[in-house]
Amino acid sequence: MTKNAPAAAHPGVPLATGEAKASTRLLPQTRFGGPMPWVIAILIALVVIAAAGGLALRGLAENARAELSGALTVQIVEANGESRAALAEAAAAALADDRLVTSVRIVPESELAALLEPWLGASAASGDVPIPALIDVELSRQATAREIARLRETLDTLAPGIRVDAQSQWLGPVYDALAALQYLALALIALIAFATAAAVWLAARNAFANHRETVEIIHLLGGTDAQVTRIFQRAVLRDAIFGGLIGLALGIGAVWLLGRQFAALESGMVAGGGLGWTDWAVIAAIPVGGVVLALITGRITIGFALRQML
Question: What's the whole-model pTM score?
Fold first, then answer.
């Protein structure tokens, strides 16, 4: 051994601070030009989009259920205009006396004609086409099937042809579809999380395989498995943080563009699917979860690789 050559540490003895820093420099530092940060960025962006969609669907379903669960629509089909108006007044009076009803509104014929004009044209307001009378009924709470049947019986005493529709019932398939889409968003998030863990696992395995000889030298210098693991974890942490921030920016940009497109529809139901501060906080936490997942996966992967060296 020459005079200037450093004495090798005894295997199994932890490196001193200076030697530990030197061993860290033995491994090439990961640069952002590699594929791993960009893979994480794409996956995080997909999770942000899926999470925003699921949260928006949840808000839309909750708003629609809150607005329509306690509502009824009464339809009166009668060819004679005078008889139809009289039946509407009588039905509204009968409904207003019910303890479950909070408000009753007879929809004006001009409003109904405006709603039908895109399909019937000018004839919708001409009076040539008999338009059923509609009554909007607000309830104090969501009515049960027995209570709706009782209201039907009350109106049947006025005219057997009066129809009562509970909006919560005919919107049931819509709620089921929204719930299915929310579950689909959760499944996509779980699948993307699995893909992220798999990508980190492959990258960590490849990095360890490429630097296996260097790791053996670090062990000969007295480095421990924990020190080697920390060296690789720092590289994973840098890639995950960079990829998470880029992915969050890309995902939020996509969500913002989609939100503008849906807002242009000017639909009241779509407007109920806006994201609140709580939803944005959940979205902002997605990169943090991605970084934690990457660190855990990297640590487990390097741990298994080190045990296989023994």
Answer: 0.66
